[in-house]
Amino acid sequence: MRRVLGVRGAVVVGLAAMLGAGVFAVWAPAARAAGVALLVGLLVAAVVAWANATSTAQLAAALPVAGGAYAFGRARLGPWWGFAAGWGFVVGKTASCAAMAMTFAAYLAPQAWRRPVAVAAVVVLVLVANRGITRTATVAAALLGLVLVGLAVVVSAGASASSWPPLTTGTTGTTGTTSVRGVLESAGLLFFAFAGYARVATLGEEVRDPARTIPRAVTTAWAIAVAVYALVALAVLATLGAQGAADSTAPLADVVAAAGWDWARPVVGLAAAAASLGALLALVAGLGRTAMAMAREGDLPRPLAAVDERHGVPARAQLVLGALVVALVLVADVRAAIGFSSFGVLTYYLVANLAAWRQPSHERRWPRGVQVLGAVGCATLALNLPGTAVTGGLVVLAVGVVGRAVALRRARQTEHAG
């Protein structure tokens, strides 16, 4: 693959993934879990994300190959660890792609047209991704610009509302108390806001000077995302209060309405649609490269390992994944199907932290204590997810492990028979 992406392009791809539809919707469930203490949850999520980001950057600088934690897990822990990370990521994020497409359609299309519009969005973005990583970064930058404008409007509206006292009220979750579990649940929800930095690592074969570019891009994208989420959280809580945020179905639109900025509601809607598309585009790129890396090792069908000679991208893998996403959009209730995605992402980063902990001293950029913090954080957040998400994640992981075991057994039998 071609090393054509610099720091700026890598940051854009990471931010497009982090500032997705979640920044427009996560505040309601986070407020229901922890009230105003969601700010503590945001801090916990940011710290865990930082530990994961540094582990990912350290690994990617030493192993600048496509596949992210799948490739890192195989190299430092063994094939089964790598498979667990890659399988959870591919299956979970394929469902997330369908959810992002449907979210985009929900903002722009009437109910009867939402599935066709979502399908069209998937098709267009897969075609963009197949034109090369520089084209992907250019489109992601345009979408990211729209998102940042929309979020700036929300923060400005919240500041102009002059209702900062609600920040001191509604301090409990919907259970009437702010428990440690409530804060951790909000952190688990908010953590996924920062998970997009993994998209940078999956592009390991396409960045220039990876030992320098990847760590800078990952940490820069993380820092910008933390600042943006903190400002938006303050605007939501100051304008709506914790209870108002918990009861809202569209918190950011309600912020501008509460400030009397009704003209800005379409701006927020457009920004949310752009965020969904940006996250979808970044996911297509990351999934394609992870699937390609898995196919190289035989953990997915080997034809998916093909790289388009003209554009230097895993076009076949991206087309197949795009077809799967379209099928999900057409036949599945993706909102109910993606609960296991959260569990899969935390498994992915748990493997990344363990792999970074195993790196030799000459590859290390941060002490091992950072990787311990990341691994413990991932495990803690995973266990505090809603029970359905944990159960669904374990089932998906078990299906993959059993399938790989059966495939390996058949391969050995064929080899012995030959």
TrEMBL record:
Listed transmembrane segments: 6-27, 34-51, 80-107, 113-130, 137-159, 179-200, 221-243, 263-287, 319-352, 372-402
InterPro entries registered for this protein in UniProt: AA-permease/SLC12A_dom (IPR004841), APC_superfamily (IPR050367)
Domain Amino acid permease/ SLC12A: 10-357
Domain of life: Bacteria
Record keywords, A-Z: Membrane, Transmembrane, Transmembrane helix
Pfam family, one: AA_permease
Keyword Plastid: no
Subcellular location: Membrane
Presence of the UniProt keyword Ubl conjugation in the record: no
Topology class, membrane: Multi-pass membrane protein
Cellular component terms per the entry's GO annotation: membrane
GO BP field: transmembrane transport
Protein's name according to its UniProt entry: Conserved hypothetical transport protein
Organism: Cellulomonas gelida
